[in-house]
Design a protein that fits this description.
alpha/beta; Lyase, Ornithine Decarboxylase, Chain A, domain 1; TIM Barrel; eight-stranded parallel barrel; 18 strands; binds pyridoxal-5'-phosphate
């Protein structure tokens, strides 16, 4: 790439202000670095090409950025889609992702969703043995083209129960996690092996050990446990029934600096070192990364509306809070975000650091983007940027206080200038009213 991500970001902030993207009507705007997204997708592909010659399907976890143009951009970079709801599936299809590059993983699929998935020929990972029974009925009744050539590839999600990471709510491999079949529970392993032997069309094994907060060690242990189970099932079947292992996503993101650590290459090498036989060519692979593909490439921009000092603490009141940074506001210890200060024209603010709060606009006291943060003392009209918000932040709007969904603009920052492309238009006030039953005001009279 021509220049550093942080330089591209500064250039895009200046251009966004020059080009009038941040206005009184639209006081929050989200920017997405297209070159950065492409670079992460390329890094992911290369990382796995370097450890295996087997076919690898990289499926982006749509929940991390449920935006059709983003899914299409990733698809153009060879990254398909992992979906977990009818809405996410529709987004992937609208983006033109081909069915053979889509994986459906939700823990609560209805019969209709399963039937639709098999009709489309997308891959499905069952969450539990009850769901396998439902799929039996569909396979038996000939719905779809299950597991035939061009048909759905079917798998089962297991939980290796390797333990929790630093963020409980995101740890999917705990002893009591709601996801998958827990392998260490009494009799569970035998039941899983039997489930495969009874179903010759069940050819995949899936796990996702957790997301942000999990170390590579725990992640690779989870993959090793699943590889060992695949080998056990194939030995019991007397053939290579399981031909593909889906290792999930969950690579943690560094929210503390511009450095991207750990890298996809770090994780791929750790996997190869821990479970070399999984990469010897006998098994196809599926990955489902979300946060690590997008987070570093998103920036939320907003203007400082007012400043005050309360109880000795300077506070800058901005328009970006819980509606775009829900996790950070409700659980700031787990999800701190870096904040960068710019002046009204987008030049980095200078001045001595002063400990201050950066508040959002919502009507509850906890709506703080950053608490006790050292920054040049903010003034009305300054602009602040919340960094690393490309995954799970501005794309997962929270409608508290009827605050509008911000517009999202992809950008190309070239030495010659910055070009923006709108990914999602800002929600209008009329739109907020319409989505709130505005077309039926008398409904309850
Ligand atoms: C959320 C999720 C992912 C993606 O997790 P990231 O931490 O964003 O990489 C992958 N697979 C499944 C099943 C998920 O639920």
């Amino acid at each position: 790439m021509a220049h550093l991500a942080s330089d591209r970001r500064d250039q895009a902030v200046r251009a966004a202000l020059e080009q009038g993207l941040l206005t009184e009507a639209d006081p929050v705007v989200a920017l997405l670095d297209i070159a950065g997204v492409r670079a992460s997708a390329a890094a992911l592909r290369t990382a796995f090409e370097e450890i295996t010659d087997a076919p690898v399907l990289h499926a982006f976890a749509v929940k991390a950025a449920p935006l059709v143009p983003v899914l299409r951009l990733l698809d153009s970079e060879g990254v398909g889609a992992e979906v977990a709801s009818p809405g996410e599936l529709a987004l992937a299809l609208a983006a033109g992702v081909r069915p053979e590059r889509i994986v459906l993983d939700s823990p609560a699929k209805t019969r209709a969703e399963l039937t639709g998935a098999l009709d489309l020929g997308i891959a499905v990972n069952a969450d539990n043995l009850q769901e396998l029974d439902r799929i039996d009925a569909l396979v038996g009744s000939g719905a779809g083209r299950a597991s035939g050539p061009g048909g759905s590839q079917l798998g089962l999600r297991v939980n290796a129960q390797v333990g929790a990471g630093a963020i409980g709510a995101l740890s999917t491999a705990t002893a009591t996690s709601k996801f998958g079949v827990a392998l260490r529970d009494e009799g569970a392993r035998e039941r899983v092996v039997r489930a495969y032997l009874d179903r010759p069309w069940l050819t995949r094994l899936h796990t996702h050990s957790g997301s942000q907060g999990l170390g590579l060690e725990l992640m690779t242990q989870g993959v090793r446990a699943v590889y060992e189970l695949a080998e056990e099932i194939n030995a019991a079947a007397g053939r290579q029934q399981i031909d593909t292992v889906d290792i999930g996503g969950g690579l943690p993101v560094n929210f503390a600096s511009d450095e991207e650590t750990p890298t996809f290459a770090d994780y791929a090498r750790a996997l190869r070192d821990t479970v070399p036989a999984l990469f010897d060519g006998r098994y196809g692979l599926v990955t489902e990364f979300g946060r690590s593909l997008l987070a570093k490439h998103g920036t939320v921009l907003t203007r400082v509306e007012y400043t005050k000092t309360t109880g000795g603490r300077p506070i800058a009141v901005t328009h970006a809070g819980v509606q775009v940074a829900t996790r950070t506001v409700y659980d700031p210890a787990s999800w701190p975000l870096r904040i960068v200060a710019y002046d009204a024209k987008g030049a980095p603010r200078t001045g001595d650091d002063v400990v201050q709060d950066v508040a959002g606009p919502a009507c509850f006291a906890g709506d703080l983007l950053a608490e006790a943060r050292a920054l040049p003392l903010l003034e009305p009209g300054d602009v602040i940027a919340a960094l690393d918000t490309g995954a799970y932040y501005f794309s997962s709007h929270y409608a508290y206080n009827s605050l509008a969904r911000p517009g999202i603009h992809g950008f190309h920052a070239d030495p010659g200038g910055v070009r923006f492309a709108t990914v999602r238009a800002p929600q209008t006030i009329a739109g907020i009213v319409a989505e709130a039953g505005g077309d039926r005001p008398d409904a309850l009279l």
